[in-house]
Design goal:
Length: 201
């Protein structure tokens, strides 16, 4: 099954796969929600899933499919190589993470590897994943605080919005700076955006 919200990209992927004598696209979806319902219907050997989708994102859709069907094999495909995206994709149950710059032969090789039960992590993706593994994880609350920092909110405004004391916000900010290796709030926000910890769409 091929999941991508861009029609032209989806057609290109389907065409490349259907040209192979041992492969066939049995379903196509343009949203994460549709991907889940089509997976239930067709239960394909492999799902080629775009990371950014208009409703349920690719990582969430991957997680939902893998929770319901533990033997599901999901290959994430993305234009983004942010370390947090890669880390979250594998946490969600993906067997591979490929960038959309991938050559056709490499894509087909990855699909066959995953079908054979192997994980497929290209060198550049592996390097990003290793980088991510060296960083301590932010808590859900720290991500909330960091999101508001990135939007230019003061500690007082953050405290008011999250219904917590200003002193608690300061504590969270201190933890965020330490975990991201940042010297100030601006650097913390830019580092988080670069790594894919935050997405201010």
């Amino acid at each position: 099954m091929v999941v991508d919200d861009h029609f032209v990209v989806r057609m290109g992927l389907c065409g490349s796969i259907n040209m192979e004598p041992d492969m066939e696209v049995v379903a196509e979806a343009s949203t994460g929600d549709r991907a889940l319902s089509l997976y239930r219907e067709h239960q394909p050997d492999i799902v080629l899933m775009d990371l950014r989708l208009p409703d349920t994102d690719g990582i969430t859709a991957c997680k939902l499919i893998c929770e319901e069907f533990p033997k599901a094999a999901v290959v994430m495909l993305s234009t983004h190589d942010a370390e947090e995206d890669i880390y979250r994709a594998f946490q969600a149950g993906a067997q591979a993470y490929l960038l959309k710059t991938v050559q056709r032969e490499e894509l087909l090789r990855a699909l066959r590897s995953v079908h054979a039960g192997e994980r497929c992590i290209p060198a550049e993706v592996g390097a990003r994943l290793a980088e991510r593994m060296s960083h301590p994880e932010l808590t859900a609350r720290e991500v909330e605080v960091l999101t508001l920092i990135a939007k230019g909110k003061s500690n007082k405004e953050i405290g008011s919005e999250l219904s917590i004391a200003e002193v608690t916000v300061k504590l969270h900010v201190g933890h965020i700076l330490a975990k991201l290796g940042a010297s100030d709030r601006t650097q913390a926000a830019t580092t988080a955006l670069r790594r894919g910890v935050l997405h201010l769409d």
